[in-house]
């Protein structure tokens, strides 16, 4: 008999009932150090007092009106994002998946309105992940996500990750946009080098192509900048945001330049819940907190410390770990042992991590994790590695 919850997840045998900062507590009283943060969602940890206060204050006033009316909390968050980023305008969603849908529509509508409706092709890359919607799985193109779900949405060209010659050959008169993650998350914490991101921007400028960045996982301070592309000194035309922006409350957004968004006029897109007062009230506090320069300096300092200690851990367990990769507090341990074995051994050590492709274990802690908690994380990773090594 099928369970009451559709069985699309292989869930760990853990049930959490309370969270505080970087810690989660189970229904049987055990405490776990959380290096997954809900897959990079709980950017400020669990039950952050400022987020709780913002949610409570808004919940006592107004929950939902729909986008038929002006929403003050939404306007505040939009203004903050425009002030802090390249963007001229924002559309709010409930998730990164929905942000992908709009990003694809926006790029194609842009060219349609410019009198070039044939420009519909969007270039994407192997190992990418852009959500589980029809557009998202078609964009990623992997058999794991697409098998059994055809016919797939057309108009995507999939290229090998890092193949510059293939990219040059693929960019042509029918190319609407290039869609890329500055750091692949599900794909195994694979960063796109700054030089390559600059090269993508140059290629887009040369051919008049729109650059879409998927910063759903790597954005919102995760790399030590508010958004990862800032390290390369380039800007996209369209950007997908979610996960950390809501600090645990379901919230996403598409950010865009005025030019890229020019085709999205009244009636071309919508969302019943997107940009609701509750999500935007929390999101504004998240953005105000993370965009602060001192906060980001703290992320970079702790990231440097964490990486240094991880390098030492790898040296101690050369048969379990191969390398550490990533940026900021978006790190991955490339494993020689089976990554799931490391994740499972972490449970026994009171530690939560997240598996990824390419035999990688993701480390995505809250951005306000303490240095003492980083020491604890290393100790528990050491316990897990020792158990895996036998």
Any descriptors?
alpha/beta, Aspartate Aminotransferase, domain 1, 4-stranded mixed β-sheet, 2 domains, Aspartate Aminotransferase, domain 2, 17 strands, 7-stranded mixed β-sheet, 390 residues
Please give a structural write-up.
By secondary structure, the protein is an alpha/beta fold. The protein has two domains: 16-34 and 293-389, Aspartate Aminotransferase, domain 1 (Alpha-Beta Complex), CATH 3.90.1150; 50-290, Aspartate Aminotransferase, domain 2 (3-Layer(aba) Sandwich), CATH 3.40.640. It is 37% helix and 19% strand. The chain contains twelve helices and 17 strands. The chain has helices spanning 37-40, 49-59, 72-84, 96-113, 134-140, 143-146, 164-170, 194-207, 277-290, 293-316, 339-348, 371-389, and strands spanning 16-20, 23-26, 31-34, 89-93, 121-125, 156-159, 175-180, 183-184, 190-191, 210-214, 238-241, 252-256, 321-327, 330-335, 351-352, 354-356, 360-363. The protein has a seven-stranded mixed beta sheet, sandwiched between helices. A four-stranded mixed beta sheet has the order 1-2-3-15. A hairpin with a 5-residue loop joins strand 8 and strand 9 (190-191). The longest helix has 24 residues, at 293-316. It starts with 15 loop residues before the first strand and ends with a helix. The model has no long low-confidence stretch (mean pLDDT 97).
